[in-house]
Amino acid sequence: MKKLLLGISLSLAAMTCDAGDPKFIDFVVKQAHQKKFYGCDAAIKSAFDQATGDDIRVNTDWFEDTQDDFLKLTATFGSTNDSVFIEAEFRKHSDKCYVTKTSIITTPQSCTAYASEMKGFEFEAETSDYIWMKSKGGIPMYLKPFNGGCIATFQFGNYY
Q: What H or E segment, with its residue span, contains residue 59?
């Protein structure tokens, strides 16, 4: 899972890394199509390009009034105490597909150890019990200590 965590983090920092499970990625696209949401396949594939493992789940959510141009997909994968939660919202507008994505990673490592491995991120502030960091590309990372481990949250947006 450590490779996956690093891969997700590097991907978020606009670096290249190994792709996730192609079968799962195709499954997520099919879930969108079953909800009659088309035109964002590249964005969906990109949002879930790191999903791997044997226990992957996905949920679709939408509003009936906006189902032609909005869809939210949520997925979880990984293993106990070493898992990933991804929530991605897709919006079609003016022949483009916009995506906002939040990835939450749990790790048994301390936040200090996790942050030290994240060479592309710099410390910004500590607010209440969160450590705020940001990549040189502007992607935020929020670290929260939890039960001796760490919860890392990443957010970004893009369009296709």
A: strand 57-61
d(CA 58, CA 148): 28
Residue 133 CA to residue 120 CA, distance in Å, equals 10
- Give the model confidence (pLDDT) of 62-121 as tens digits: 777 777 899 999 999 888 777 899 999 999 999 999 999 999 999 999 999 999 999 999
What are the E-state strand segments in 62-160?
A: 70-79, 82-93, 96-107, 121-127, 130-135, 140-146, 149-159
Q: Are strands 70-79 and 82-93 parallel, antiparallel or unpaired?
A: antiparallel
Q: 29-39, pLDDT tens digit by residue?
A: 999 999 889 99
CA distance 62 to 79: 28
* DSSP, res 110: -
Q: Decide: 98 and 91 in contact? Cβ < 8 Å.
A: yes
